[in-house]
Each structure stands twice: as structure tokens, then as C-alpha cells.
Amino acid sequence: MEKNNDRITSFQLMMMLVGTIIGVGVLSLPRESAKAVGPDGWILAIIGGILTLILAVLMSQVVQRFPQKTFQEIVNSLVGKVIGTILVFGFAVYHIIFSALQCRIFGEILKEYLLLYTPVEVLIIVMLLTTAYAVRSGAKTIVRLAQIIIPVMILLSIILVVTLMPGADYTNLMPVLRTPPLKLLQSIPVILFSFLGVEMILVLSPFITDVQNVPKRASLSIGIVTLIYVLMIVATTARLGIVETTHIIWPGLEVFKTVDVPDIFIENIEIYALGGWVYQVFLTLVANVFAASLMLQYLFRAKSHKPFVLPILPVVYFVALIPDNLAEINELLNLLTQRFGIVYFAIVPVVLWGISLFKKQKGSGKSAS
Amino acid sequence: MNFYEQLFQKKPKEKIPVEKEIDANLETIKEELSFCDDVVYREFKIGQKQEMKAALIYTEGLANKTMLDESILEDLMYFTRMANMDPNVLKKKIHEAILDGSISVANVRESDDLDEAIDAVLIGDSILLFDQWDKILIFDAKGWPMRSVGEPEMEMVIRGPGDGFNETLRVNTALVRRRIRDPKFKIKQMQIGKRSKTDIAVLYIEGITNKEILKMVKERLDQIQIDAVLGSSYIEQLIEDEWRSPFPQIQNTQRPDVVAAALYEGRVAIIIDNTPYALIAPATVATFIQSPEDHYERFFIASAIRILRVLALLTNLYLPSLYIAITSFHPGILPTDLLLYIAGSRLNVPFPVVIEAFLMEASLELLREAGVRLPGPIGATIGIVGGLVLGQAAVEAGIVSPLMVIVVALTAMAAYSSPSYSFAISFRMLRFVLMAASAFLGLYGLILATLIILTHLCNLKSFGVPYLSPLVASEMKWQDFKDFFIRVPLHMMRRRPQFLRPEDSIRMGKNRPNNAVKGDDTGGKKQ
Amino acid sequence: MHRKKLKIFLWILVGVSILTGCWDKVEIEDRAFIALIGVDKFQAASGDKQAVFSSEGDGFNQENRYTVSYAYPNTGMIAQKIEGEPKFIFVSTGEDLFNIRESTNTRLGKELFLRHMKAIVIGEELAKDEQLFRELMDRIDRSPEIGRKLHLMVTPGLAKDVLDTSTKDEGVLGLYIRDLMQRAGRRARIPDADFGYILRSLHESQTAIIPRVISSKNEFKAAGSGVIRDFRLVGWLGEIETEVLMFMMDRIKASTVDVEMDNLILPLYVTESKAKMKAFEKDGEIIVRFDLKMEADLKRHLFQRLGETDESAYYERLQKEASKMLEHQIVALYKKIQKKFGADLLQVGEYLRKHEPDLWEKVKNDWDNVYRTTKVEADVDLKIRRLGVTM
Fold first, then answer.
1. Lowest-confidence region among A260-269, A304-313, C319-328
2. Closest by alpha carbon to A237, among A174, A186, A192, A178?
3. B8 in a domain, yes or no?
4. C-alpha angle with apex A287: A193 to A329, nearest 5 degrees?
5. What is the extent of the structural domain holding C118?
């Protein structure tokens, strides 16, 4: 760990978080939210963002309490070795399954919109190979990739949203807040999938140098993500209307078909949006595969995560091909997100935070006496 | 011993001691240099009665004969005869007398090592041996034919100095020294090459250059074990961080002003004898998109041109592959009217776009290669014949589409607009990789190939400095971007680039001098 | 050693896939860029519904339901490479829209490419058939290729005939329609209704208007509109009716209005129009109210009729007259749509849902009937700004 190559700053962590969280979910997010709460989708996104923010701060505090400790070291010292090993293993499985599903949805969208006749298997394999190359390069390279890609993506998404703004019918967002608050709260799991990825704070904890800045920077990244989500939901709902938004599988992409920029050299803006989105999915996949290989490294007490990257790929690939069609993928995804995802996304961090708080008090009490 | 002394200390070497008898010494030297017919031995006698034997040894062609004649031989052979001195004193002090009073050469040193003396002969120095003395005098009386200091052909600028490096190390260091008169500017010389014994100078400014970087340069130079160094690229290839990369990790230049600017930023320059190219390390992407002219022009023009240059680089890399991706995979992206025109212009063209693109790009490279090999005026003719006539004929014959010719021509233009030749050629090579990728999976292939290149670039370092600095700095600072895509006004670049971790980062004072004149338009004060 | 083998294997994999790959590669000249599609209901001449090209020995007979005409431009002529017809038209029949497309692919020798489609024209008969119309809408909606900016148009008669029209200055009819519709906001005899609007309106209110095209041999005219309710064509709106409807929907900025005053027909060029629709409950009745603010230029008066055109009182009278006429037209049109078609074209229901959610909760289950009882009010405020260069 002395090598300079494995050190990242909280600024780089921030970029990485944005890259990890925004993934395949962003395109279907307007549909999910419109289906659940109608025109109040953007409020739902804000609520989701705030909740994620709280979780991010909790995780950051755990990381702060264990600076430069790996996830395994943290859980082992907090909940004991047996449960810790189970958690680490589960974490690896979780990342593998989610990268598989992301891969599959990614392949499906690409096939529908870009490459009609290319087998989805090929689309997935080449993506995974590219991912593997990046993951094998190590944490520093991964965050650097995020550092380069994310600012461009933020710029691109702002430009794209600006093209969506004129001519949109904002009355489609009315009536505001007619959804009962209880329903709003019950609908939070629906948009949870779009916020998965905050756990990267725990995964990257051994590499972070300036832990004191982590809560601030992590919150900022959640803020950026929430802002992009809100803009996306508002623009999509305003342009397509509630009924159509719930009707289309990927309204986040389809909405660009309604835009006409006749005077510029560009037609069919959705392809450009798709191009940018590929980079985003790449970052998400890289983060997930990296996390999985890192967990395996801890389990096998290996020196490096590199040997685990290539063996993970076939697993991801075959899991990705299990569901028959998109309807099945979506059902599977919802099930997994709400059962499995929530454990690592919310429950584990909260429990870890609670225990660490408790232990710290005990520890400080001891030192006082 | 401080850091710098420790870094550049000489390793002890085995010596061949100098004998007292001149004949023994001559014997040894002649044995070492047997069959070296360019070495000249001039044996003569000095003193009033010609009682003392001496010998002058030099290499024909490397030594300044006029100087030897006038400053050494004439003095010793002619004037010593006239001197009236006490022979006894002379016997003891002749060497001092000669060294102090008889030889009018600026650079003379004594040596008690025959090996060193032999090396000196081969470098171009002349050595003088005396009987009954166990030391050798080494004169710097070098003189060989060399190119004059002229404007370098590869890095022309409009508003900038017109001097460039030539093949002589000393001239080159002098050109740099003229720009940095700071005593902290150091030139440390060493020899690399077991047989070629090429002189190499490491240039840096003490107190600015980061010690780690300097140490890395020195260590890597020390590790080189090669028989001969025939050019700067030999050194470049041996000390760069990643030999598998298509990207150059060390900058090369023929311009002393570029070297000086790099030194002031905190980089290290390496000048190698017998080549007009100096190496500058560490190099980052930023160094390859900058031209020295950027700093000589007004800042907004310089910034605009630099942005144009970045776009040209991207064009060079992406245009043909984008053309393939769009025409054979995603015609949806183009506006309908343009698209219909392209489709029409490709009607009856026998080759698929991919083959067409590869053929045209390859013939362009061929053209370039042919143009380089041929002498000046014919080379230009080849360019015109190949570019215009061939393209025109191919289009008229219907073998290629006119748009393809435009694409190829644009790519070529973009490639030549790059200020760094070595950076541009690496992009030219990657262009073919990208073309293959986009022929395979269209836009998606192009994106993935871009990601792979990007990953590689993120991995890459040049002497410990990330290649993509300041884009991938651990903390992005506006400071570092002031001379990246744009160049801000000079007075705003107060600090040196932070990613080079200079030891003294302040470059200029806080305030720009207040040049606004108070008073009326004429500049004078109101009466 | 092991690693080396793996690396070699991966390289071979990559190499093989590149060699055998390129699934989606279709040369640009091998694509047929469909600019315009005409869809008709199949009408066999002899009256039987068997396939025309019914293949012998095919045990599974298909019923022909659609006639689809594809028009694509002759790109060689656009690039001035060859001479000939500016466009090609291909007519195909079949049971299902996608089937037809696929079978056309096999007959054409070119790959149909729909991303650059500019318009779809549907025949009157098809528009009147709910099943076929809904199938068509879903096919377009579901397709990732077909954009939402294209223009869905309806023609009285056969769509195929529209495609056969040869327009003079722009050879490609699809591009001609695109250029025509781009100016729709300024010359409002055609509704500004692209496919995105139609889909949205149909999803939300089960009703929409579709631009109407009429063609004769050498001429092509887009004027008026067809009214779709419950996914089938229920009637037509004329040119002036369409214009007034566009004013009410706030979808045009400029148009001409003819006002009759003192036995003189005066053309007013409307340069600015802002419309606001409001719906509210008053005394148990739902009242729909239109507030329009317009600005107009006077374009013609009578030669040598002096004495009145330089007085502001005259223009005030003219403004009042024009406003009254427009108010009258708005009320009449609303009532026509309401009574004759029973279609909530102006999306009053959507307005209530967005702005009066409490009221909407009460009426939404019986909206079809409630809509027929709504009352309409109109208030037009037209100002004459410019008079030309004579008084």
C-alpha cells in the first residue's frame, strides 16, 4: 500500500461516485417514478437523494473512523470475523449480480437503438473486456477515468437537457404534491436502483488519503446526481406527458426523439445521448467489477485484485444471459434491488455506523478511565 | 555531501598510471590506439639544446590545427630555444614553466591517467607528453566542421528566435546558457555508450526542478548499458516509462527557447552530442499541444489557436473512423439532406467504405513517406501529384467517393498542424486501430476503443508525472489549467505548473505593472 | 505460462470476432432512405381478401389487410451522378406492417432505413378503422427507429395517390412535407401537429387532430385537419376551422384573418397571438374560457378612401369588429367539436387534472358526458399595430 499508485483523494472519490451511481437506471428512472407517483417524480428523486445523502454521510463517518482500512478489516473489527466474512462474500456476489444485470440492460438498449443485428452476447463481451482492462489497471486509473469522463458527461447532460427545455409543456408537472405523503414514502424503493453505488465509499476506503473531506465531497456528488435526476425527470415528463412517460420503457432516451434542432448539423439526438451514456455505464461496470474483485482479493487473502478480474467476467456474462427478456429483467431487478441491494445500500452501512458509534463511545470511555 | 553532489558523484575508475619515461608512455598509447590511423603523433624536442623530448598527440579532423601550430608547437619549439634560463632550474620546473608561461591555450589540464588521455584524444582534445614527467597535459583545442546555428526546420515559428540546436553539444548548451544566466542553472555532463562514449548533458535549474524527477532521470541514465548512442531517440527509448505505449513520453525539440522554457517550468533537459534534438522530461499531453509561439502571441489568439489544434488532433484521430461508423452503421446521425448526398455520391463505388477508407489512408501515408525520402522540390511535386492528381483521377474513375477524398485530405491537414511530430505520428497510428474498431461495431466500437486508449493514457506516467496532467491531478486546480486548453494572459500565470511539483512554485510578482497612463489621450499631463 | 495462453486465446477471440463480425454493417448506398410512407387499408379489386401474390402451396394463407407504399429518393440524382426519376415508389401488401417491411426488404435489394422518415400518410379508410389505426400507432410508437418529429397525415382517398404526386421544386416529397410543416407555425391552414403531439394527445385524451393532405396529379396541398376520437377518424375540420383551433391551442404565432367591416373585407396579418385556456366550475357548470391576446397588421384597405384611416377611432372599431368575429368563431368551433365529434381536442380534461385536481376527481369517471355539457366563453383582445406605409 505504500505505492503512490493506490492513493486517491476525496475529490477523485466524488467523481467516481457520480460515475458509479448514474448507470443504466437513469434512462428508465422517469418511467419508474411517473408510474409510482405521477407528476411528483422529481420530488421523489429529491427525497431519494436526501436519503442517499444521509447514508453517504454515515458511510463516510465509518470510513473516517477507520482510515485506510479495507472493507473486510472494518466489518471484521465491528461485527466479528464470521459475520464479516459472510458480509464480504455477499458483497462480492452483490456486485457481480448487479454488474451482470446492468450489462444485460445495457446490451438490450444498445441492440434496440444502435446495433440491431449484432448479437447481444457480443455487445456484452466486448464491453466486459474493456471493463476488465480498466479494472486491472487499479484504483488510481479507475478514478482518473472517472475524473476525465464525469466533467464531460455533466457538461453533455446539461447541453442535452437545454435542448429539451424549449417547447416543453411544463403544465405536465401539475398538480404538484397531490400524491399522499405515505405513498411517496412507500415509493422510495422504486427509485432505489438509480441510487445504488454509494457503497463505493466503503469499497474505496483503503485508498482514500484525505478522509476528513470525505463527507463533504460525497454529499456533493450525491447532490450532482440528484440534480441530474431531477432535471431528467422534469424534462422527460414535461415533454412526453405523464401517460406516455409511464408507457415507454426508456423515456430518458425516447424523449430526445421529440427534439428537433433543424439548424444544427445534428439529427436524431438520441444517438448522441446514447453515446454519452455508454461512457457512464462503463464507469458503473468498472466500479462494480472492481469492487467484486477487491472483495475476492480479501477473501482469498491475495496480494492483488488483478488475478480475480478475468475469472469474474464469465460469471457476469452468464448471469447476464439468464433472464429471457426485458420484462423478466425488470422483475428480477426490482426483486434484487429491494431484497439484496437494500441490505448493502442501506442496512449494512447503518448497522456498521451504529456499532462503530457504540464502540467508539466504549473505547473513549475506556481511555478516559 | 548535499543531494546534488551525491547524485552526480563520479564513480572511481581504474587508472593506467603515467610512466616517467616518455617512450614507455608512447608505447602504451600506440598500443591502445593501434590501427587508428587518424591519430597523429608528433614527436619533437624542446629547449635551447634540444635536450628534452616531447610528443603531441591529436586526432586528425577533430583538432584545431591552427591552434596547435600557433599556440603550442610554435611556442615550444621556437620560443623555448631563445629563452635563456638556468638549465638546473629548468630541469626541475620545466613543466610549470611550460604550463604557466609557454602555452597560450585557454583550457588546459593535467592528468596522471593514460586512459583519460586516450579518451581525450578521441574526443578531439590534444595531449602533450614530456620526458621525465609523470603527468600529461590535455589541451582543449577542438575544431571540427559543424553546421551553423540555423532555424530548425521542424519547429518553425513566426514570431520567435531563429536559432536552433546543431550537432555539437557545447554549442547547444551555450545556446541554452544564453537564455538562463542563473548560477543555479546546472549542466552536468556524463558519457554514455561503452564504445561511442557519447557526451550527454543533463540540464536543470537547482531550486526549481523537483529532486525526485532529477533523481529518476539520473538513475535511468546510469542504468543504460549500450555500446553506442547514435541519436537522442536511443536515450529516449531507453529511459521512457512505458515502452509499449504508442505515445511519446519525452518531448524532443530543436529549439533552445523551448528547452529554456521547460527548465524554467521545472523540467529536466537532456542534450546529447551529435544530435540536434534535445530531450525534455517529464512530458505530458499538454506539452505536445503547445507550440512555443503560444507564449509569443497575444493570449486570446494563442488560446484560440490552441483550441483549434486540439480539435485538429481529434480530427486526425477520429475523422476517418467516424466516417466509417456513420456511413456503414448509423446513417441516422446525419441531417437528411447531407445523408442523401453522401449516399448518392457513393453510388457505383465498388469498394465498401471500410476498404475505401483503409486504401485511401494507407496511400496517404505512402505519399507522406515518399515525400520525406525524396529531396525537397521533388518531394513537394510528389505531394501535389499524389494528392491532387491521384485523388481527382480516383474520383473521376468512380473508384472512391469524393467525400472520402475530402475526409482523407482533412485528416492529413489535421495531422500536419500538430506542433509535435512524434505525438502526431502516434495518433496517426491509432487512427488505423480506431478505423478497425469502428468497422467492427460502428459507433459502439469507436467508443470502446476510445475507452481503452483513455485507460491506457490514465495509466501512463512520464517520470512519475501522470501523462494526462493536469486533467487527472488528485486535486484539480484552476492553476494548472491556465496553460492547457487555453493560455491565460502572462501576468495571470503566476505559478509554475503544480503537477511538476517544483520546489519554487512562484514565477512572478503579484501585480501586473500598472501601465495605464493617467491624464488625457496624448499621455501627457494636463497643464 | 498460463497467462500467456489466456492472452493468446483472447487475442484470437478478438480477431475472429472482427473477421466474422460487422453484423450491422450496411453500406450507405445499399440502404433505401425512406422519406415517406403511405399506409392504406387493403382493398382488393375483385372484392376477395386473398393475397395477390399468394404463393402456391403455402398452406398458411394470410389475409391482406394493409397496402403500404414506400417512397425513397433517388440519391444518385441528388448527387448529380445519374439522371432519372427523383424518387422511387414501392407498393406492398400484407397482413401486418412489420411483415410488409420485411418482405419489401427481400424484394427491394436494399435495406429499408426508417430513421430519416419525414412523414406517414394514411388513407381515409384506414383512419376510420379503429383496429388497423391502433395497430399502426403501436407499430410506430414501439419502433426505436421512427422518430417523434415526423408528421402523421391523413388524406381523403388513398395515401398511395399522395405519394404519386410529383412536386416541382423539391423532388423528394418527404423533404417537401418537412419543409412545408416547418412553416406551419406561420401559415396556419395546417395544424402544427407532429407525431409526438398526436401520440401524447391520444394517450391522454384519446383524441387528436391530424393534418390533412390533399393531392391531385401535379399538386400537393396540406390544409385542414382530420379529427381522431377513440382511435379512429370521426370527421374533418376545414382550413379556417383549423386555423381558429390553432389559435385556441396557442400553437401558432402568425396567420391572416379576414374581417368584414363597412362592406369591405380587410385582411389582417396576425403577428403575435397568445392564448390561455381556463376551465372552472361556476354554478354547477364547467365553464371553459379562452383569453386571446393578438397583435395584427393591416395589409390592405381601399384605394383613395380617405378620411377614416387616419383616425384612431376607426381602428378601435376595427379591432372590436375583428375581436368579435374571432370570439364568435371560437365559440362556434368549440361547440362543433363538442357536439359533433364529442372529442376533447382542447384537452379540457387534462387541464382540470393539472390545475383543478379536486374538480377532476369528481368528474373524471363520467368525463365524456360532462364534457358535452361544458359551456364556452371567449375573450379576444386584438390590437392593430402597423398600417403599412399609407394612411
1. A260-269
2. A174
3. no
4. 40
5. 29-51+60-237
* B117 and B26 co-located in one domain: yes
How many domains does one find in chain C?
Answer: 2
Chain B CB within 8 Å of residue A145 CB: yes
User: How far is it, in rounded angstroms, from Cα A11 to Cα A208?
Assistant: 10
CA B420 to chain CA mean position, Å? 12
> Do residues C214 and C260 both lie within one domain?
no
| Phi, psi angle pair for A51, to nearest 5° | -60, -45
Cβ separation A147–B451 shorter than 8 A? no
Nearest alpha carbon to residue A237 among A173, A177, A159, A187: A173
Radius of gyration of chain B (CA): 31
Check if the interface score ipTM surpasses 0.90.
yes
Closest approach of C71 to chain B, Cα-based (Å): 14
Structural domains of chain A sorted by starting position, each given as residue range(s) with its CATH number in brackets: 4-357 (1.20.1740.10)
Contact C195, C111 (CB under 8 A): no
C-alpha cell at A99: 454488474
Hey, what's the cell of A31?
418511467
Strand order in the sheet with C151-155: C87-94, C66-73, C36-41, C119-123, C151-155, C207-215, C220-229, C232-237
Average pLDDT, chain A: 86
Residues B309 and B430 in one domain: yes
User: Do residue B279 and residue B334 come from a single domain?
Assistant: no
Same domain, C37 and C110: yes
Partner-chain contact A12 B459, CB within 8 Å: no
CA distance C195 to C150: 6
**Domain presence at residue B156:** no
What CATH number corresponds to the domain at position C377?
Answer: 3.30.300.210
Instruction: Assign 3-class secondary structure to B69-117.
Output: HHHHHHHHHHHHHHCCCCHHHHHHHHHHHHHHHHCCCCCEEEECEHHHH
State in Å, rounded, how far the first CA of chain C is from the last one. Answer: 97
For residues A316 and A103, what is the distance between their CA atoms, to the nearest angstrom?
8
Low-confidence ranges of chain B (pLDDT < 70): 1, 11, 80-95, 97, 99-102, 516-527
Based on the fold, state whether residues B385 and B323 are members of the same structural domain.
Answer: yes
CB contact under 8 A, A267 and B471: no
Measured in angstroms, the CA of A174 and the nearest CA of chain C are apart by 5
List the alpha helices (DSSP H) in B191-255.
211-223, 232-239
Residues linked to residue B234 through DSSP beta bridges, in sequence order: none
Which segments within B273-358 are labelled E, that is strand?
Answer: 278-281
Q: Which of A115, A141, A265 sits opposite B335 (nearest CB)?
A: A265
Do C249 and C227 reside in the same domain of the chain?
no
Rounded to a whole number, what is the distance in Å from the CA of A12 to chain B's nearest CA?
Answer: 7
Alpha carbon distance A334, A337 (integer Å): 5
Its pTM stands at 0.89
- Chain C neighbors of A243, CB-CB under 8 A: 200, 203-204
Residues of A in contact with C115 (CB under 8 A): 268
- Residue A141, number of CB atoms within 10 A of its CB: 24
The answer to whether the beta carbons of residues A115 and A123 sit under 8 Å apart is yes
Overall number of domains in chain B? 3
Residues β-bridged to residue C210: C226
For every residue of C190-214, DSSP letters joined together read S----HHHHHHHHHHHSEEEEEEEE
C73: in domain? yes
Q: Is C79 on the interface with B (CB under 8 A)?
A: yes
Residues of C in contact with B323 (CB under 8 A): none
Residue C8 domain-assigned (yes or no): no
C287-325 burial: b if 16+ Cβ within 10 Å, else e? ebebebebbbbbeebeeeeeeebeeeebbeebbebbbeb
Q: What is the pLDDT of residues A149-173, one digit of tens each?
A: 999 999 988 888 888 888 788 888 8
The residue segments making up the domain with residue B231 are: 169-283
Asked whether residue B499 is domain-assigned, the answer is: no
